[in-house]
Structure formats: structure tokens, C-alpha cells
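Q: Here's a chain of 71 amino acids. Please give me its 3D structure as C-alpha cells.
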Amino acid sequence: TRNEFTLWLHTMKLSKAAAARALGVSSTTVTEMVNGNQPISRRTELACAALYCRIGSLKFPWKHHLNLRHG
């Protein structure tokens, strides 16, 4: 929800511009989410959770479990 997103911003001590950079969206999008004019996508929810948990980048640690041979 927008309240949860706003709480995340305050908890993370991020400006709207910094949050936009971290989430890979525009500052306008962040403002729209805070104002409740744009829904918060599942992608954004997951990105916020990853940033909160300090997961900066996924290195796809599970890929060694996949058999990706073709043909």
C-alpha cells in the first residue's frame, strides 16, 4: 500500500530521488506511488524488500542447479 511504501521510504531514510534511483524508476513514479496515484507493483514490493534486506544484486546462485544444455 502507499502507507507501507511511505514507511519504507522513512525507514530507509531515502529521498524520493534516491528511492527512484534504487528502484530503477523515475522520481515522478515514486511521487505518484506516495500520493496513491499509481499502484505499487509486485516488482516494486520485492525490490523494496531486497533493498531493506541489503540485497544489492542477485548473482543467481541457483543457476548451477539448472540443466541448461540445449540439444
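Q: Can you summarize the key feature?
A: The mean pLDDT is 87.
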